[in-house]
Structure formats: C-alpha cells, structure tokens
TrEMBL record:
It comes from the Bacteria. Keywords: Membrane, Transmembrane, Transmembrane helix, Transport. It is a multi-pass membrane protein. Its main location: membrane. The chain crosses the membrane at residues 12-36, 48-68, 80-97, 103-121, 141-162, 182-200, 241-259, 302-322, 334-353, 359-380, 392-412, 424-444. InterPro entries: MFS (IPR011701), MFS_trans_sf (IPR036259). It is found in: Membrane. PANTHER family: SOLUTE CARRIER FAMILY 45 MEMBER 3 ISOFORM X1, SUGAR TRANSPORTER. This is MFS transporter.
Amino acid sequence: MKKRKLSFWEIWNMSFGFLGIQFGFALQGGFMSRIFQTLGAGKDDIPLLWIAAPLTGLIVQPIIGYMSDRTWSLKWGRRRPYFLVGAILSSIALFFVPYSPTLWIAAGFLWVLDASINISMEPFRALVADKLDESQRTYGFVMQTLIIGIGTWIASNLPWLVSELGVSDSADLGVVPNSVKVAFAIGAFVFLVSILYTVFTTTEYPPEDMEEFEREKAQKNSFISDIVNNIGNMPKTMKKLGVIQFFSWFAFFTMWSMANPALTEHVFNTPAPIETNYNMDIAVDKEAFDVANTAFQKSSNAVGSAMGVYGLSSMAFALLLVLYTSKKNINRKYVHMFSLILGGLGFLLMNIVESSQLKYCFILIGISWGSILSMPYAMLSSSVNPKKMGMFMGIFNMFIVIPQIIAAVGGINFVSGLLGEQAINAMTVAGISLIIAGFSNFLITNRAAISYQEAV
C-alpha cells in the first residue's frame, strides 16, 4: 500500500509520546545509580544492580512486538493499547522508586520501571514504519530523536531545578533527598500525559489484507517458536547492525550506570560517603557525614545536569537532520559512523576536563546519541518484512540488551579494572567501545539501508 506523506505536525503528534518515555529513561539513567549509592551500594556493586534494565528489555520487547503485530482494534489500533498500558505502569513505578527504603526494593522497582517503559517504547518504533512511506522513514525516526532530546535535557535537569527552587538536597543516612522525589513525581506526570496526547491525536492504518491478518492471528503457532524462527532467519543487514549496536549500547550502559560515581569522584572530588567511615552516634562524625553527603548530592545534581546536555545536543543534531531529511536523503552509514566516533572522543576527554568543561564532553556524546536513536532503526526498517516490523524491532532489541547484560554481570568491572581501580576508567572503556562501534559501520553494504535514494 502506498502511504500518503504525513505533515510535520502529524509526525510530531505520533512521536510526542516519546517525550514521556524519555523522561522515564533519563531519570532512570541519570539518577538510579545515585539512589543506589544513597542506599549504601558500593561503586563496584552498581553495574549488577542495573541488570534489571537489559534483562526486562530482552524478555519484554520481542513479546510486545509479536503481540502488537497481531493486534487490531477499530477504536485503539495496533500499537496504541501498548503505549497506554506501559505509560500507566511506568508512571506508578517512577513515582514510588525514590521512596525505596532499602537497596533491594530500589532494585525491584527498577525491574518494574524498565519493563513498563519497554511496553510503551517498542511499539513506538514500529509505529514509524507502520505510518510512514519509505521515503519518510529517516525523517520519522529523526523526529522521535528530536523529542527524545528535549525529554532527556529537561528530565536530567529536574533534580537541579527543584533544588534551585528550594527543595532540599540534604537527607538522613539511607534516605533519598526530597529534590529527587519531586523530580520523579514530575516525570511520572509527564510520562502519562505525553502518551495520552499521542494516543488521542494519532490514528493507525488497518492491516492491508484483513482476511490474511485474521488467518495469521488464528494460527496456533507458539510465539516463542515464531520468535526463534525469525531470529534464525534475520536479514544479514540486521546482523551487521547488531555488531554496531553491541558496542554502542555497551558504551551507553556504562555511562548510565557509572557516570555518577565516576564523575562525582574524579571531576568534582566529592565521592559518596561510606557509612562505615562514620559513627553516627558521635555528633562530630554525624556532622561530617552530613557535609560530605550534601556535597555528594549536590555534585550528583551537577552530573545529572551535565548529562542533560547530551539530550540537548542530540536534539540540536536531530533538528538539523529533520530539516535536511524533510527535503533530501542522507547517507545513513557515514552519518552514523562519524557521530559515534565523536561520542567516543567525548567519553575519553572526561579524563582531563574540569567540572565547568564537562558539558562539552556531553555535547559530543549527544551527537552520537541522536544518531543511535535514529540511524540504526532507519537502516533496519528498509531491510525487513513490513508485516513483521514489530517483531523484528523487538528482536533487534537483543542487540541493545545483550551488551548491557554483559556489562552488568562483570564486563564493566573487568575491562575498566584492566586500566586501574579509579571509577573514571569506566568512561574510558565507554569511549573506546563507541569508537569501535563507529568503525563497524564499514560492515553495512546494503544500498537500501544506507540511503533510500540509492534504492529507487
């Protein structure tokens, strides 16, 4: 079916829900390690505590992709029911996670939060391929990236902003500050409202052949065997993109899990206070702990704000791509390659910059982030069967979550440990990984994936 070209505002409306999704991811990515450290986690424990995020993605996304491919409602469409369910569950989890009284409860909330976000996110990727003609695919994925950048920047600055408005950064031992609690509550509200906006402003195309769709849906095939069969028969281009994704997401998982301990320690010189170093029954020790803890919480706000810059620069990068791809086609392969290399340099520079210069590192990282959120999906959407777009988008998520699982169960600690004990070495590992991802783009040779223009 030849699809009509959509206007800017139609594409904006169908992408707007990603604002809320990114509020959830930015708050999770920027501040879960801070919550874990506040509740007593050591920096070497943090990657493993993060394993919930990739594991839930590995399980949830292929299943949701499979289910949404086989869903159709005259009122709600194919993908929108999953947006809504995920948004409700995510908002509840976002609100309550900073109230966790213990480390294991916080880790449990991360499982719930990430699974819920994934329920909403995967169908959004498939919606672009469902709604847009081939010639607008890059434009659509870049529009999502623009909105993601806005969400990342605002959400990453929320704890700093509410702190500036007078909400306290101080808290007792093992208690998350009120500034973080208020920020997560705002994020929960934005998540739900933005998803509702897309649900009620966007329509979906019905299946091209409704009779065939109903026959396929009525088949009794196990979705597990269906997913396994499609994994075994994935296109070559998808496998090659998987190599790029592996090193890209290893780098970004390292940033999300380790940036707070690495940068508060190396750049701000305010590491998280260790409880065993203080006797809270002695007034002098309690006062010293309060001073050290408040300094750590404030530098964590600053790290979060600096990380927000990568959302801002990814937004600017995406805006340039939106303006360009609305009229012309691009070479996705080379755009992605150079973007990833720039991000890798941003990570490496963290070893030598001062706190006031940290934002420049994240500007470079933001360029790579903007490309990661658009170019691989644009290349993939030109390489797979449109009838199985949701499933393949879910399967493609394996190349996102497997490197994160490897990083969480010891990959980060092992590789960064080869460079020394300092937490900043994790950022060096992230930089090297992202540069490898950049050069891996030479693997992509499919002309349709590289540029739509070359395929027609």
